[in-house]
Structure formats: C-alpha cells, structure tokens
Design brief:
The complex is a heterodimer of chains A (about 190) and B (about 160).
Chain A: H1 2-16, H2 20-47, H3 54-73, H4 83-92, E1 100-101, E2 106-107, H5 108-122, H6 124-127, E3 131-139, E4 144-154, E5 168-177, E6 180-189
Helix pairs in contact in A: 4-5
Chain B: H1 2-59, E1 65-68, E2 71-78, H2 79-91, H3 93-104, E3 107-115, E4 119-125, E5 133-144, E6 149-160
Parallel strand pairs in B: 2-5
Antiparallel strand pairs in B: 1-2, 3-4, 3-6, 5-6
Helix pairs in contact in B: 2-3
Classes of the chains: A alpha+beta (about 190), B alpha+beta (about 160).
C-alpha cells in the first residue's frame, strides 16, 4: 500500500507537475475558481431578487374591491336606476325586461353590458389589467351558478384568470333577486 | 547568483501583493454594486409605501368622505364637500403649504368622474419638477347629496419622489 502511494506521488510530482511552483499555481487557480463560484451564487440569490410587490399587491386588491362596490352603487342615465337595480331587473325578467332605456333604446341586460364595457375601457383596460366579471343566479347549496342563468360575463381574455394560487384578486357581491341570490364577482388577473 | 535569487523572490512577492490587492479591489467594486442594488430596492419599497400612505390619506380624508347621520360610507367622496375643499384651498394658499403639504407632500391628486358624465377636479397639486413619480389609481363612488345619486369615478394619485 505504502509502495503504491509513493508511486502515484512520484508520478504526479515528476511527470505531471515537474516543479513545486506549478503545483502552487494550480492551488491558486483552484481558490480563484471557488471564490468565483461563491460570487456567482451570491449574485444568483441576492442581486437578481424579484423587485418589491408591495404596491402592486395593494393596488390590485383595492382595485378589485373598490371597482365592484362603486360599480353596483352607480346611478345610470337609464331611468336613474342603479346597476344593482338593472341587474335585478335583468335577472327577474329575463325574457322581457321591465326597465327600458329610451335614450339608448336598450333593455336592462344589454344596457348593463354596454355600460360595464365602457367603464372598463376607461379604467382597467387603460391600466393594462386583465379581468373577468361575471354575474349569475347563484345556487347557495352547490356554491355554483345555476346552468343557463348567467346574466353577464365580460373579459378581455375571453376566459377566467388562471386558477393558480395568487393568480388573481377577487371581489364579490350578492344581490337578492325574487327569493334567490344573484352573485356578481370581479377577478383581476395578476 | 545569490543576488539574482533574492531579486526573483522579491519580484515574486511583489506579484503576489499585486494580485492580492487586485482581488481586494474587485471584491470592493462587487460589494459596492451589490449594496447599490440593495439600496435601490429598499428605496423603491419605501417609495411604494409612501405613495400608498398618501393614497390612503386621500381616500379616508374626513373633509371628503360621504357620511349619513354620522355614519361614514367607505370608498365614497361627497362632491359638495370636494368642491368646498377645493374652494378653501384656492382661497387660502397657506392651508395648502402647511397642513396639506404634511399630508400629501409632493403629489398631484385628481378626482375624475367617468360615468354617467365626465368631470374632473384637481384637489391638490404640488409637482416636483424633474422627479420620478408613482401612480396609484383608486376606483371610487362620487355622491351628490342634492340629487341623492352616485356616480362612478377614479381617484388618481401621482406621488413624486
């Protein structure tokens, strides 16, 4: 064993690294490589950290909640009715709406949609946010929309926000309609 | 021969010292850069927090909030109160410079009614020339107590830093 070790040592010493200084340089190079690797790791995990998301998180959550709360309270120029009243009329009298807007010649269902699209074009579209707004008669037992009871569905994406955790900020409101419940919710996609 | 050997040793020592200081120099430059990045990150986070603070102050300003029988309505600005505050600020420049500067610092606060009619009120304007700004839009309800009607609006806050 002793013989084998000294043979390897002799081989390295005499054949590969003929002088002591060459071995020292190899050691130095090794140290430099280690330091470089350490610095690269440091850059990877600290310098390239994601920028602060404080403001974005705050504004998105506030936008979703405030937008929906303000929207449903707003009085329209359609007989002075609020968006809530128009939604109730649209859900209660689906075939022939009671509220008719003589200025735009639209029934409540059509009027709500065009009004919402206009407001979103001036706000969320301008700010570059993707969103999904839906209103439907809500089954409180199954916690789902009744089939074919969707009153309103607006989205620039044409679909819902992706369903992963933290992918959207959501706000919802429940409106009573003829002994049933109408749910309206707004998702702002991140 | 002996002199030559010592000269080589001296040169070797100088070379080692040179490399050593070079490495320290590189290390220092690198550390400074990292510190700068971290400082900018902290600053941007602080600016974000300050702009949120100003936005919250405007949203919950008692001079503007809607109320009914002493009950405050969230996320709502009373148009009559808003006009009164703007009038007051225009007639008393000291009010803007003293009280409101402490609240809003360098910012531009505008209330925009989007629906059913478009209207615009500039509540506070104190722009810092050449400075960067953080923009925060807040959807709000605008209440007119004389007609008892709500409009849809946006509170725009530009915070300069």
């Amino acid at each position: 064993m002793k013989y084998k070790k000294s043979k390897i040592f002799d081989y390295v010493r005499n054949r590969r690294f003929q002088t002591k200084s060459q071995m020292e340089i190899m050691g130095l190079a090794f140290v430099v490589i280690l330091i470089t690797l350490g610095l690269l790791f440091y850059i990877r995990f600290t310098a390239t950290k994601e920028p602060s998301q404080v403001k974005e998180t705050f504004t998105t959550s506030q936008k979703a909640a405030n937008m929906l709360n303000s929207l449903i309270k707003t009085n329209t120029y359609c007989a002075g009715a609020t968006i809530t009243q128009l939604l109730q009329d649209c859900a209660e009298n689906k075939d022939i709406n009671e509220i008719f807007c003589s200025i735009t010649m639209q029934e409540s269902c059509e009027f709500i949609e065009s009004t919402m699209i206009y407001i979103f074009s001036q706000t969320l579209d301008t700010w570059g946010d993707d969103y999904y707004l839906k209103a439907c008669l809500w089954n409180t037992i199954t916690q789902q929309c009744y089939p074919d009871e969707t009153i309103l569905s607006i989205s620039p994406l044409g679909s819902e926000c992706s369903s992963g955790l933290g992918q959207r900020e959501s706000s919802s409101q429940f409106i009573p309609v003829n002994g049933r419940v109408l749910k309206i919710w707004l998702d702002i996609c991140k | 021969m002996k002199q030559k050997k010592s000269q080589i040793r001296m040169a070797e020592t100088v070379a080692i010292l040179f490399i050593f200081f070079l490495m320290i120099g590189f290390g220092f430059i690198f550390y400074a850069k990292i510190q700068r990045i971290q400082f900018q990150e902290t600053r941007s986070k602080n600016v974000d927090l300050e702009s949120i603070e100003v936005t919250q102050r405007v949203s919950f300003l008692p001079e503007l909030q809607c109320s009914s029988k002493n009950v405050i309505k969230d996320n709502c600005i009373d148009v009559i109160k808003l006009n009164a505050v703007i009038e007051q600020l225009e007639s008393d420049p000291d009010l803007k410079a003293d009280l409101y500067f402490d609240l809003f610092k360098y910012s531009n606060i505008t209330v925009i009614q989007l629906y059913p009619e478009e209207k615009r009120w500039t509540l506070y304007e104190n722009i810092k020339e050449g400075a960067s700004y953080a923009f925060t839009p807040v959807p709000i309800s605008l209440y007119n107590s004389t007609t008892n009607k709500y409009s849809f609006g946006i509170l725009e806050v530009y915070y300069y830093y």
